[in-house]
Amino acid sequence: MNVVLIKNLMNHLGEEVVVNGWLYNKRGSGKIQFLIIRDGSGITQGVVTKAERPELFEKAKEITQESSIQVTGVVQQNTKSPGGYELQLMNIEVVSMAEKYPISLKKHGVDFLADRRHLWIRTPRQSAILRIRSEVEMAVREFFYQRDFIQADSPIITPAACEGTTTLFEIDYHGEKAYLSQSGQLYLEAAAMALGRVYCFGPTFRAEKSKTRRHLLEFWMIEAEAAFMDFEENLKLQEEMVYHIIQRVLERRKADLITLGRDITKLEAVKLPFPRISYTEAVEILNKEGHQFTWGDDFGAPDETLISNKYDSPVFIHRFPTDIKAFYMKPDPQDGKVVLGADLLAPEGYGEIIGGGQRIDDIQLLEQRLEEHKLPREAFEWYLDLRLYGSVPHSGFGLGLERTIAWICGLEHVRESIPFPRTLHRLYP
Ligand code: 4AD
Ligand code: MG
Fold it and tell me: Residues 192, 51: one domain?
């Protein structure tokens, strides 16, 4: 049996092949039936005429939407078929006939679809997004592999906070208090002192209380950390990684971007190096353009959008006020009021996709910061050890996978960028 993926039909012109998939849609007349078949790799059509195969024609007419089927047919070119090829059907095996499918091909409301996310992901648009997500993940691994970064995954269950105590998910660890990880960074710093250049990629958790288009309660973060890497080198690594992701998606997933109706010229316009502006410069721009903004405040979504709209590429905002950033950020030696931290804002109003910076490598300052942030020292003893035994300047960053995908795909909301989103009021399915 010559089983092929729909995306590879073009390599089997004139051959008899077998496709395993589901019936996405069907149309026809009294004389001809078209079965629109999907297999996850693509969509194609199978054709059968009453004149040539009357029994198969009758069988085809009975198959319901989303039934699982195995079809045998000869591959032919047809510009009118989805994907440009079709199957002249010779046989159809119904693996399982589907009940009446709850998602029809017309428009549905978001809540209706979200309740049926397990079925919604079968639709062409959602499948295209998930294929792009997979491509982004591959691109990231390829990028770090090429640069001799070792993947060193961080734990999910942790005894301490990394990104502030307000968004912690608490769990009961056999009577001991523990938290779901907000970021793998602290462990990655330890791994960087062992392996030099490292990255981790895993789920992270924030008990966010605000309902926005950009926040999930569970999201995936790609984090990198390197010993002896300074602030500027860190920015360069980030922009090269983001550029690499975009190039790979453009190269391999253009058809999916087209399915999504994405304006591809916007992605093609991304160029290296990305612009860099300081927080203080950003504040000046905001005030000049009518946003009343006080130095020392954190940016809101409209502020980020105003700034990112000035550029075709993502833009770095660097050197934030110490008070609005995490405890571990290294002060700028030129100006003690700001830290060597930077956010990368995606174009088109997608907001912050990366947070990163240089870390404090001095033990006294780190101890002081833990106190200022009222973090329990016992939980951080191991982290302080890193500054006792061969401390070095080091930097790193974390890229939010879902926000990056939302930008690449041009999505309205991050919830479509992950197979099963966890949002403020949704834990099902
Ligand atoms: O800026 P954040 O909080 O940085 C850190 O966690 C650092 N410890 C990372 C590091 O340096 N290793 O989060 C990093 C990124 C953000 O820029 C954003 O893209 C994403 O994670 N992010 C979220 N994505 C979806 N939903 C949320 N609730 C998110 N919170 C952060
Ligand atoms: Mg941030």
Answer: no
Nearest to 218 by CA among 233, 202, 230, 232: 202
Dist CA 329 CA 347 (whole Å): 25
Q: Give the number of whichever ligand sits closest to the CA of residue 398.
A: 1
Q: Please state, in angstroms and rounded to a whole number, the distance separating the CA atoms of residues 110 and 417.
A: 14
User: 77 - beta bridge partners?
Assistant: 85
Calpha distance 30→90 (Å, rounded):
18
Helix/strand/coil percent split, the chain, to 5: 35, 30, 35
Q: Best of 163, 343, 401, 405 to mutate for ligand 1, by most ligand atoms within 8 A of CB?
A: 163
Q: Which residues span the domain enclosing 159? A: 117-417
pTM for the full predicted model: 0.97
Separation between Cα atoms, residue 185 and residue 177, nearest integer Å: 20
pLDDT tens digit sequence for 321-375: 999 999 999 999 999 999 999 999 999 999 999 999 999 999 999 999 999 999 9
- 133 and 242, same domain (yes or no): yes
Residue 200 near residue 154, CB atoms below 8 Å: yes
